[in-house]
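I hope you will forgive my troubling you with a question about protein structure. I am sending you one protein, given as its amino acid sequence and as whole-number tokens for its backbone shapes. Thank you for your consideration; the sequence and its tokens are set out here:
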Amino acid sequence: MKYKAFQFLENGYIEAIDQRKLPFQKEPFLLKTSDDAFYAIKEMVVRGAGVIGNIGAIGVYLAALESRGDKHHVEWQSELLRHARPTAVNLTWAIDRMLTKLKNNKNGNSIEPLKKEAIQICEEDKENTIAIGKHGFLLIEDIWKRNGKKKVNILTHCNAGYLGIVDSGTALAPIYEAKKNGIDIHVWVDETRPRNQGSNLTSWELSQEGIEHTVIVDNTGGLLLQKKLVDIVFVGADRVTAKGDVANKIGTYLKALAAHDNNVPFYVAFPVSTFDFLLSDGLSEVEIELRGEEEIKYVHGLDSKGNYKKVLVTLADTKVANYGFDVTPNRLITGLITEKGICGANEDAIRKKYLN
């Protein structure tokens, strides 16, 4: 099976795009073992809630492959994989699903059943993102018609395209659908410090698809919203609580505040698997990943001679705090877009749509 962020090889291994090298170099990263999968998730070779879940599931399969189906080894490695990154719920969800398949397998060797289940998870995500794109597209189409079919300006944060959620993405899926349907669109792309997923990954994706876009520094969004240069905001999610609080890349909350203050619709797009119905209050209950200082202290890019360089931008001994995510309370969110449609970001609407 081939997806835009990774593919299964004939020998049973996985080849992923090393997202750390984009947009300057498109290089493969080979996953042969469950340890490779753990490293790829932990070190952000792959990232994005959906793809983290996919590679987590694949890691369980690779544990079976490397151990020739030894159940105890698979269970042990699965627990390691579960803790590769803490905030995105899709990782735990996918690993639990794989372990259920392992437990229910009564036919001896577990390699093929686990491989099929990992592929099934990826295929379901692919179909879900197509549906998310179609639902979100209706919002863009409505704005386009109300604006007299003039250009629709969209603001997004981080990367929630096909590099993060196979194979259409979440926040970018409606944008791809709008492009396909001939709507004139322009995307404001937050750089998304410190890893620059916007300027490095979202911009690269949109360039590949021929979609007009402009990269902005993270703090520009508020000004654009004040000046009415944004028609709608789309972001993805790493974990969504039962009452509609959203954990997403750090900086999302500030965009939601600015959008709310300027009466611009703010939508969150994600597959249903990103819900964590066991949590209610996102601010107090969601674990926020605290990442290493190096991500803030150094930037990566090309110098004037085209050489890829790593450059220190703070004093070497400066203390930094690198929170990877924040939580946007449901009161700031216009609606939630999943493969099942659009609903309000509140407990009653979520319960009625997903839990009844």
